[in-house]
Amino acid sequence: MNLSDHPTFLMIGSMKSGTTSIFEDFTRHPGIFCPTIKEPDDLADDKVLTEKGREEYLRIFRDAQPGQWIGEASTAYTQYPTVSGVPRRAKDVLGSDLRLIFVGRNPLDRMKSHYRHDVQKGAVTRPIEDELEANPFLFDVSCYDKQLDQWLAEFPREQILVLHMKDYIQTPKEVVHGIWKFLDLEPVEMEHGVASNVSSGKRAPRGLMRKIVRSRAYGLYAKKFLPSGLRKNLRQIIVPKRDVEFRDDISEESRSSLEAQLKDSTSKFDTWVEEDRKRLGLIS
């Protein structure tokens, strides 16, 4: 299998940490190919290990040109233990030379954004503290060490780039150029700094419409023939805007408890971020 056959890098999360914006920004490089399908998630299921499942996954990269870096971004790849076994599948399907990009942010801010995302979809109606107590998934995804340890069990540290969302917000050009350096790509001149997938007030498709826009057929065949401006206009017409008042205040007692639980995890994440800032010269 040559370079143009399969992904050679993955953006593996974390959810609600700027992954969409950063991915859309750095993949504008002509030396990179990414599919029109948003978050294919194939490596989150054992189906990808079957002949049919592998063929279906690799089909979405069929338009890549020889010599391009090929990649995709799926935040389901760092949602352990709800989603497990992803690093093993990635290694089995894509090989041991895979490069990985992970983005995190302040873990409590990530939880709140995650909560707003779920409220916007209509999946959650209870207050955030009740949701945190009932749904450990929000907390687990913010345990960045737990998520990355799964990948470090299969891939060496030097093949994993760990970024902080705030660095991209403050210095997008430096972060994007650092990612290109990580992928052995020469920089190209373009504007950087975009904002995608903001939760508050966005038009969130639900029900049948959500199934359509997230479908493989839409991503492979329809989306690439619709200019982004036209897709945006259609979304405004078809998908109603949901102006939801978010009540995501966390009491000081709960905040202190969560910060204490996340202290070691956050410290480890910060260490990895600082290592990669120095490794790639992202931030002086």
Automatic annotation (TrEMBL):
The keyword Transferase applies. InterPro entries: NST/OST (IPR037359), P-loop_NTPase (IPR027417), Sulfotransferase_dom (IPR000863). SUPFAM superfamilies: P-loop containing nucleoside triphosphate hydrolases. Transmembrane segments: none annotated. The keyword Cell membrane does not apply. Keywords: Glycoprotein, Transferase. Residues 91-186 form the Sulfotransferase domain. GO terms for molecular function: sulfotransferase activity. It comes from the Bacteria. PANTHER family: BIFUNCTIONAL HEPARAN SULFATE N-DEACETYLASE_N-SULFOTRANSFERASE, HEPARAN SULFATE SULFOTRANSFERASE. This is Sulfotransferase domain protein.
